[in-house]
Design goal:
α4 packs antiparallel against α5. The chain is globular. The longest helix is centred in the middle third of the chain and has 15 residues. It has two domains: about 120 residues, Rossmann fold (3-Layer(aba) Sandwich); about 130 residues, Hypothetical Protein Tm841, Chain: A,domain 3 (2-Layer Sandwich). By secondary structure, the protein is of the alpha/beta class. β9 and β10 form a beta hairpin. The strands form three sheets. It has a six-stranded mixed β-sheet with strand order 10-9-8-13-11-12, sandwiched between helices.
Length: about 280
């Protein structure tokens, strides 16, 4: 009899009410300021992160090995037999690769399959929620792994930033173009591609026009047939997030939708002002 659990990282942007901690264990990424390290969303909030970023640009790092050990031992102690690891894109973080190495020490006690989501934020969160629901529905381990991997083809992530400064400093710039264009107020619409890295899909003069371009991509490319769930993630600008959410909800084909704050560890690499669309095609 399979008893299946899920292990993931805090970049998934799931809130406590969105998952069952008896089935899902979240490893907090770390944020390092000059006075020490903090655990993403545990010992530092997004608001505190943004406030401190006014005077210092922090670094991020992988979840602690002790947190991985604690999570896996929790599953063993509670009689779990199979674990699905669902992690932020390996093109944006070393978490997936680090866990793959760490899990080797548990292979004699747990069947573990790790999935590189090639995405982040609620793109990752959607895959976790799907896996959790399939566990509740009694699906087999192999079937859950197969379907969760396939789900990635139905998930798209786009975002617009106030500045590319933090992506550049954090080394997460990927294939994003238009850095010189910042001087001309040219804003790229950034997409997470199939390799799980950032690239530019469109550009506009000014943030307002860039947001309209992003909404245009949503409407023209991702609301066909059965429509989509769309989650608006913001970086410390809740009012702007709600404004974009209101525009999203006017489009035909929108099913589930809400706006929420990006987790602190992702905010470090985007800076304040991000507006992103997490799209789940149905």
């Amino acid at each position: 009899m399979e008893k299946i659990g899920i292990i993931t990282d805090s970049a998934c942007d799931l809130r406590p009410h969105q998952y069952d901690p008896a089935l899902v264990r979240i490893l907090p990424l770390k944020i390092a300021f000059s006075d020490g390290e903090y655990k993403d969303g545990v010992t530092i909030s997004a608001e505190e992160t943004y406030r401190r970023m006014d005077t210092e640009v922090p670094k991020t790092s992988l979840p602690e090995g002790s947190d991985m050990d604690t999570a896996l031992n929790y599953f063993i102690d509670n009689g779990f037999t199979h674990i699905i690891g669902i992690f932020i894109s390996s093109g944006l973080s070393g978490t997936f690769n680090a866990f793959q190495q760490f899990q080797e020490d548990f292979k004699d006690r747990l069947v573990i399959e790790s999935i590189d989501t090639k995405t982040l934020s609620m793109g990752e969160g959607i895959m976790i929620r799907m896996a959790e629901q399939m566990i509740r529905d009694g699906a087999s381990f192999d079937e859950i792994v197969r379907q969760v991997r396939a789900k990635r083809e139905k998930i798209e992530v786009y975002f617009v930033l106030d500045t590319l400064e933090y992506l550049i400093k954090g080394g997460r710039i990927g294939k994003v173009s238009g850095t010189i264009g910042q001087l001309l107020n040219i804003r790229p619409v950034i997409h997470v591609n199939e390799e799980g890295i950032y690239h530019t899909v469109d550009k506009a003069r000014g943030k307002k026009q860039a947001l309209q371009k992003m909404l245009g991509i949503l409407e023209s490319q991702h609301l066909k047939e059965n429509g989509a769930n769309v989650y608006v993630m913001h970086g410390g600008v809740p009012a702007e997030g709600e404004e974009v959410l209101a525009q999203v909800r006017k489009l035909a084909g929108i099913k589930e939708s809400y706006s929420d704050q990006l987790t602190p560890s992702l905010s470090v690499h985007t800076g304040k002002g991000l507006i992103g669309l997490i799209i789940e095609e149905l």
